[in-house]
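Practice problem 4.
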């Protein structure tokens, strides 16, 4: 039997204007998730015990029917959260209009080194400004980092201090091809991560759970052995309406399939294997650290 799923990560769009080179998104295509497909997904997944929906992207605030997506999930009795890179006035306005309906909002940001690497402009300061504009009880700053020094760590800690904003950290995970193009090795990236962790640890109290997560990533990147099977309790629905046990999984079923087939797919043991990319994306919103 597969691990019973209680939450689902829903891709509201297959495209994103940020398009950072280290993006964790599993799917890249044009177009939005249709309301009909989304409603059917909620109906079928509710029947299997799913209790929470996390809207992601692409960029969810670009969806023309965002408010309806949120309200539909609530009508099915599901808690709704969102992961966003909202920065523009239109994006922040769209987010603020549904903020009070959400149990959690996570805003993505990048360290200065990660911005240079991924050619993004998602600063931590602008992410905190977005969170300040949203009326949601639980707020998370998700920082993707690379090449962080003590001064930058101090600035980031100062931005969230006293605001009730939790911090989730994700080191940049470069593929072997990307490392090779940059003239680096896996060992080089692990050494950089160790330096970054030390800098962040000077200004944040890193949780034991986060340090364990880094250890797991290191083992997966260094091990030549097959990784362990996926045991995630979070499902994934693509913008085209494909349900997977894992965003990166090879097996999937359409939400338009008969309910008996969907139930059989979800009840079957997941065959996907855990890799660094999915280990990074399949993490609940949590307090990885606190300002020291």
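Answer key:
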């Amino acid at each position: 039997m597969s691990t019973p799923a209680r939450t689902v990560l829903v891709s509201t769009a297959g495209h994103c204007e940020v398009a950072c080179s280290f993006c964790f998104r599993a799917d890249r295509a044009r177009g939005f998730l249709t309301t009909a497909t989304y409603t059917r997904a909620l109906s079928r997944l509710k029947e299997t015990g799913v209790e929470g929906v996390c809207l992601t992207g692409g960029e969810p605030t670009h969806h023309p029917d965002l408010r309806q997506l949120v309200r539909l999930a609530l009508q099915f009795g599901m808690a709704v959260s969102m992961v966003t890179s909202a920065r523009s006035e239109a994006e922040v306005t769209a987010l603020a209009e549904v903020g009070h309906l959400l149990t959690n909002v996570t805003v993505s940001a990048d360290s200065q080194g990660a911005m240079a690497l991924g050619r993004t402009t998602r600063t931590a300061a602008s992410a905190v400004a977005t969170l300040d504009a949203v009326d949601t009880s639980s707020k998370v700053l998700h920082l993707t980092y690379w090449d962080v020094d003590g001064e930058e760590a101090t600035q980031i800690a100062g931005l969230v201090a006293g605001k009730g904003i939790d911090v989730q950290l994700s080191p940049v995970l470069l593929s072997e091809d990307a490392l090779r193009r940059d003239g680096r090795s896996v060992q080089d990236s692990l050494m950089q991560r160790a330096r970054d962790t030390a800098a962040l640890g000077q200004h944040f109290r890193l949780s034991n759970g986060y340090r364990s997560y880094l250890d797991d990533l290191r083992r997966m990147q260094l091990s030549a052995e097959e990784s362990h099977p996926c045991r995630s309790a979070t499902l994934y629905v693509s913008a085209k309406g494909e349900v997977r046990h894992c965003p990166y999984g090879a097996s999937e079923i359409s939400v338009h399939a008969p309910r008996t087939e969907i139930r059989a797919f979800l009840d079957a043991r997941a065959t996907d294997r855990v890799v660094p990319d999915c280990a990074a994306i399949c993490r609940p919103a949590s307090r990885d650290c606190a300002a020291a």
